[in-house]
Design a protein that fits this description.
The chain is an alpha/beta fold. It is about 55% helix and about 10% strand. The chain has a 5-stranded parallel β-sheet with strand order 2-3-1-4-5, sandwiched between helices.
Length: about 220
């Protein structure tokens, strides 16, 4: 029996990484086999591409087109070597970001043509798509402050995304909310303003309701 594919999306500092790990643990505790992934990343090659995507290179920043193609390469590796085998083996896959982030960051906000972004997503991921996407929503100012907390209270100037200005982060939030409206059957919008435990409980309830589990 095929597994389920759940992605967590949202802007910087919304707690996606923490909540993805907590959800995976809850599923495992309920006896459901789980593969926990992050995007970009998840395989040896994709993790190397993640370093290129996330880290500033002195004197040569990545073009939006380059970002898009590198994310496509990451997702191709992830889908073929991690996501598809896990789902076919009956595992549930929980992923911190996936192709919705590509559409939002490189399409809506970087300004690349959305039809091109969508075609590359489809080409890279082939038949793989999330069964459920949880959008963790918070005001960008709070999210950036939280992201700074990961780096001793200051913005990581070497991180290509965390170090963007507030107008960028506001556009990211608005774009995620717009995308969620386009796919209401897949997206569940949850507030990321509460405590870690409160957010985790909201996510578990949403997953229980979506899949009729009643066990996490």
């Amino acid at each position: 029996m095929r597994g389920r594919f759940i992605t967590l999306e949202g802007g910087e500092g919304t707690g996606k990484t923490t909540q993805a790990a907590l959800l995976a643990k809850s599923l495992e505790d309920a006896g459901i086999p789980v593969l926990l992934l992050r995007s970009p990343g998840g395989t040896a090659v994709a993790e190397q591409l993640r370093t290129i995507l996330k880290t500033k290179t002195r004197g040569e920043d990545l073009l939006p087109e380059t970002e898009l193609l590198l994310f496509g390469a990451c997702h191709s590796q992830m889908c073929e070597y991690a996501v598809k085998p896990a789902l076919e083996a009956g595992k549930w896959v929980v992923c911190d970001r996936f192709f919705d982030s590509t559409t939002v960051y490189q399409g809506y906000v970087r300004g690349l043509p959305l039809d091109v972004v969508e075609r590359i997503n489809q080409f890279a991921c082939r038949t793989v798509a999330p069964d459920m996407t949880i959008l963790l929503d918070i005001d960008p100012e709070t999210g950036v402050r939280r992201a700074c907390g990961r780096n001793g209270g200051v913005i990581d100037q070497n991180d290509r995304f965390d170090s963007e200005g507030m107008s960028f982060h506001r556009a990211i939030r608005e774009s995620f909310l717009e995308r969620a409206k386009l796919f209401p059957e897949r997206f569940r919008i949850l507030s990321a303003a509460g405590t870690v435990e409160e957010i985790s409980n909201d996510i578990k309830k949403a997953v229980n309701d979506e899949f009729g589990l009643g066990i996490i």
